[in-house]
């Protein structure tokens, strides 16, 4: 069966036809760069000192380009990729770099005279050992921007907006966050040396307060009380009790819950979070509900059933008949994130598998639907751990498609996923590998424990009889595991036959896995498709 979504090839105009189209469209434009025959620049290597004032570089691709003294004034570069590019002593003002990708990029030597000013970096990604050095960003915005795996040094974020921004595995040296907004920014696995943070906003971030309470890094907090304009982090932490009084008195429950979580006062944190969600739900403040939901996701203080209840509570306390079009737009803008933060597995070390299962089942064939759902539940049960959470979505136009989302540790998923292909499609391409992994794991554990016992035996002769007994138990345990593995193989074969017996045909299975997975994970475990 052909699942291609492209039914017809595009018909491209001739060069003459395209040139005529450009000429006709430019008649309506004051800016004659709005329409070009080649609007998207693709450039590799070399030095560039061009003047891009007022020009459009949107959706362009640059690779290993060095912009030396280039001018980006009122430049539109949204959606562009700057792979391993360098921006050195450029003029960047009133520019739009929204939703750009900067893997391995370097931005340097943009201080007072050439500060990056009034520029939009919203929803952009700096990744892949990026470097930002000797830069002043002023009056610029970085909302939902991500800085991952890189270095920022000798940099001042002055009067900028970094709301909902991510710093993950970033080394920060000699950084000043001053007169700016870092509300709801997230700090993971960071290292700071001589970094100054804004006094009033630390409790409104994710991870920063916990970091300050455990780190030995050289970190300071702005303070008008000090002649140096800053205090040590220890002095700031001494003020937490006063901050608790203030945030309780002003009913500002997000920072209050954040403090309690950082202090390990989980019962008080739960009360603050639930009260905050109650208040925000009654007010229709979906933005704040999102941030409370993210706080819940970051700390394992609510189990899945509690999170489900919170999600249901939010929806039952919103008066949908009274929502205006604007209210509904606001709700839909945050709905997906709220749902993800509350209903996704928030336990540590989790990977996520998403499967699409296409069938020949009509939505009216309830017995078949029920049987396949039961089969999927049994497959998941074969390999799941106590950390596992999943949900199954059933959707149909003509025949039914199941969307299965499983969240568990990678070791469990690499057993469950091949079992899906084996049972539903009779595909053993992955199954043989998974069986071998199971046997290897059992054998490895057996040999490891044996070595430990042998070492213990050499050290303490008096325990020989006890070790022999434990070794015998180990042999018995290995035998039981192998028997359980054989039992699972039999159960899977029964399920496979029952699928056929009930006239259920699965025509295609596709899956991806992402999250906490090892770098050497086999490609077919991470992504795979199989047609009947």
TrEMBL record:
InterPro entries attached to this UniProt entry: PA_immunity-related
Coiled coil stretches, renumbered: 439-502
Domain of life of the source: Bacteria
Alphabetically ordered keywords of this record: Coiled coil
CDD domains given in the database record: UDM1_RNF168_RNF169-like
PANTHER family: ANTIBIOTIC RESISTANCE PROTEIN MCBG, PENTAPEPTIDE REPEAT-CONTAINING PROTEIN
Protein name: Pentapeptide repeat protein
Species assigned in the record: Faecalicatena orotica
């Amino acid at each position: 069966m052909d699942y291609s979504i492209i039914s017809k090839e595009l018909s491209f105009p001739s060069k003459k036809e395209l040139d005529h189209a450009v000429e006709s469209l430019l008649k309506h434009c004051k800016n004659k760069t709005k329409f070009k025959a080649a609007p998207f620049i693709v450039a590799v290597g070399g030095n560039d000192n061009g003047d891009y004032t007022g020009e459009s570089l949107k959706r362009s691709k640059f690779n290993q380009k060095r912009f030396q003294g280039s001018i980006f004034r009122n430049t539109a570069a949204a959606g562009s990729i700057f792979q391993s590019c360098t921006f050195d002593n450029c003029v960047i003002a009133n520019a739009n770099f929204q939703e750009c990708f900067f893997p391995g990029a370097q931005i340097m030597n943009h201080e007072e005279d050439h500060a990056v000013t009034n520029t939009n970096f919203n929803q952009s990604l700096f990744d892949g050992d990026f470097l930002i050095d000797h830069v002043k960003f002023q009056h610029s915005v970085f909302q939902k921007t991500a800085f991952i795996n890189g270095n920022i040094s000798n940099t001042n974020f002055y009067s900028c907006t970094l709301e909902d921004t991510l710093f993950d595995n970033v080394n920060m040296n000699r950084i000043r966050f001053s007169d700016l907004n870092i509300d709801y920014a997230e700090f993971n696995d960071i290292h700071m040396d001589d970094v100054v943070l804004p006094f009033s906003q630390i409790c409104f971030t994710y991870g920063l307060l916990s970091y300050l309470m455990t780190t030995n890094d050289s970190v300071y907090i702005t303070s008008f009380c000090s002649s140096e304009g800053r205090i040590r982090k220890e002095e700031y932490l001494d003020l937490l009790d006063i901050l608790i009084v203030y945030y309780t008195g002003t009913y500002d429950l997000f920072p209050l819950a954040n403090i309690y979580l950082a202090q390990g006062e989980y019962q008080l944190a739960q009360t603050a979070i639930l009260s905050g969600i109650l208040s925000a739900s009654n007010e229709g403040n979906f933005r704040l509900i999102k941030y409370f939901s993210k706080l819940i996701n970051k700390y394992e203080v609510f189990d899945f059933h509690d999170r489900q209840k919170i999600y249901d509570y939010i929806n039952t306390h919103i008066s949908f008949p009274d929502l205006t079009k604007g209210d509904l737009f606001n709700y839909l803008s945050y709905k997906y994130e709220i749902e993800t933060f509350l209903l996704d597995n928030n336990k540590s070390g989790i990977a996520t598998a998403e499967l699409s299962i296409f069938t020949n089942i009509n939505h009216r064939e309830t017995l078949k639907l029920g049987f396949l759902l039961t089969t999927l539940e049994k497959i998941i049960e074969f390999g799941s751990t106590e950390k596992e959470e999943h949900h199954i979505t059933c959707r149909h136009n003509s025949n039914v498609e199941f969307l299965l989302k499983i969240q568990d540790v990678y070791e469990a998923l690499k057993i469950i996923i091949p079992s899906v292909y084996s049972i539903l499609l009779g595909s053993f391409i992955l199954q043989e590998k998974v069986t071998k992994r199971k046997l290897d794991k059992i054998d490895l554990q057996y040999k490891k424990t044996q070595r430990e016992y042998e070492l213990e035996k050499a050290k303490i002769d008096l325990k020989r009889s006890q070790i022999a007994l434990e070794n015998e138990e180990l042999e018995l345990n290995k035998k039981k595991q192998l028997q359980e593995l054989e039992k699972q193989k039999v159960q899977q074969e029964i399920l496979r036959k029952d699928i056929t017996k009930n006239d259920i045909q699965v025509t295609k299975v596709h899956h991806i896995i992402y999250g906490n997975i090892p770098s050497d994970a086999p490609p077919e475990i991470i992504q795979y498709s199989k047609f009947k």
